[in-house]
Amino acid sequence: MATQLVRGMGSFFKGCACSRQNRCAHPYAIRYRDAAGRQREEAGYSTHQAALDRLTKVYEEKRTTPRAQAELKREIGKQRFGLRFCLAHPATSLRAGSVRTVNQVLNRHILPVLESRRINTLTATVVDDFIMPMEERSAGLAAQQNAFDTLKKILLDARRRGGITEDLFAGVVPPEYVPRKITIPTLDEIRTLKAASSEGLRLVIDLMSGCGLRNGEAYAANMERMVADNVCRITEQIEGKTRERAPLKHRKLGDFRETPLPATVRDALLRFEKEHGVDTNGYLLRSQRYSYWVVGGSKPAVDRAYHGGAAGLRG
Fold first, then answer.
1. What SS3 string covers the chain?
2. Which one, of 84, 131, 125, 136, lies nearest residue 110 by Cα?
3. In this model, does residue 261 exceed pLDDT 80?
4. What are the φ and ψ backbone dihedral angles of 161, each rounded to 5 degrees?
5. Based on the number of CB atoms within 10 Å of its own CB, is 103 exposed (0-12), middle (13-18) or buried (19 or more)?
6. Which of 147, 219, 197, 157 lies closest to 303 in space, CA to CA?
7. How far apart are CA 3 and CA 12, in angstroms?
8. Full-prediction pTM beyond 0.70?
9. Can you tell me the distance from the alpha carbon of 294 to that of 278, in angstroms, rounded to the nearest whole number?
10. Beta-carbon count within 10 A of 136 CB
11. Are 122 and 164 in contact (CB under 8 A)?
């Protein structure tokens, strides 16, 4: 039996059939209308006071929500989960490489399942069932986790803007991806690979093995980034597909990090500058992230060195 409170506040009740519900151990549930006018139910309140406190909080939130804001939330909730809605999310306002990755995840895994749904019809059950179609299509765990994380970012932002009023991820178990073990090449493998490489690729290998740079960061080598004899400042990378300079991975434009610069790597940079020069902006590798054999080395020789075990340095 439901208990009616102040008009517009909602009610709390027990769904059991016990004759003396005020003494049974079953939890209370509440029923109310949110700021967008949609009826909601929540369960799991151990006491009537806990249920009442939740109703009071919801009621106060509705009273302090301006009508225009409530209408905006209602309109967000009516939108369909399509590409336009997803691309308006802050997670998609990234650099070119990240945007391509997000678009691939949306088009391959998310939109085929959720595109026609209205935002306010999404529930925790829908989210919980989202992974199943990917499993049926034999998508790997890494792809599943990437898709789940992208969906979560978009829906949490929709909730922040008021289009969704409940936590859709409460109790949902995300896919768990365990990356495979990375093999670090030995010094002998590095020497073998350098012996079969061009001068440009040897410099890239020195920067990656000596300073811990990613391959895209190594291809953006710049003499002006040597901020001290033993310090190198990493400010950008060469993006893999566009071959254009881009911010560091997971960082904003202008962010940087610094890494120790071993004497051997500094000498390699200075030697390359002396023999090949730099462009007007200080960049050493004007070919900028070609395939590892296009830089100038012998492809068969590099292949042999690569497959010999130096897989961690692939360009």
1. CCEECCCCCCEEECCCCCCCCCCCCCCEEEEEECCCCCEEEEEEECCHHHHHHHHHHHHHHHHCCCHHHHHHHHHHHHCECCHHHHHCCHHHCCCHHHHHHHHHHHHHHHHHHHCCCEHHHCCHHHHHHCHHHHHHCCCCHHHHHHHHHHHHHHHHHHHHCCCCCCCCCCCCCCCCCCCCCCCCCCHHHHHHHHHCCCHHHHHHHHHHHHHCCCHHHHCCCEHHHEEECCEEEECCEECCCCCCEECCCCCCCCCCEEEECCHHHHHHHHHHHHHHCCCCCCECCCCCCCCCCCCCCCHHHHHHHHHCCCHHHCC
2. 131
3. yes
4. -85, -5
5. middle
6. 197
7. 6
8. no
9. 19
10. 8
11. yes
The token pair that represents 230 in the structure block: 């033993």
Q: What span, in angstroms and rounded, lies between the C-alpha atoms of 54 and 56?
A: 5
276-279, long-range: CB within 8 Å, 24+ apart, which pairs? 276/199, 278/222, 278/223
Report CA dihedral (43, 44, 48, 50) to the nearest 10 degrees: -110
Q: Dump pLDDT digits (tens) for 45-102.
A: 888 888 888 888 888 877 776 665 667 677 778 888 887 787 766 554 445 556 677 7
Cross-strand pairs, 40: 32
**Tokens read off for 287:** 């070919």
Neighbours of 126 (CB within 10 A): 16
Name the token pair of 162: 């008021």
Q: Which residue has the tokens 């590409």?
A: 83
Calculate the dihedral angle through the C-alpha atoms of 213, 216, 217, 222, rounding to the nearest 10 degrees. Answer: 130
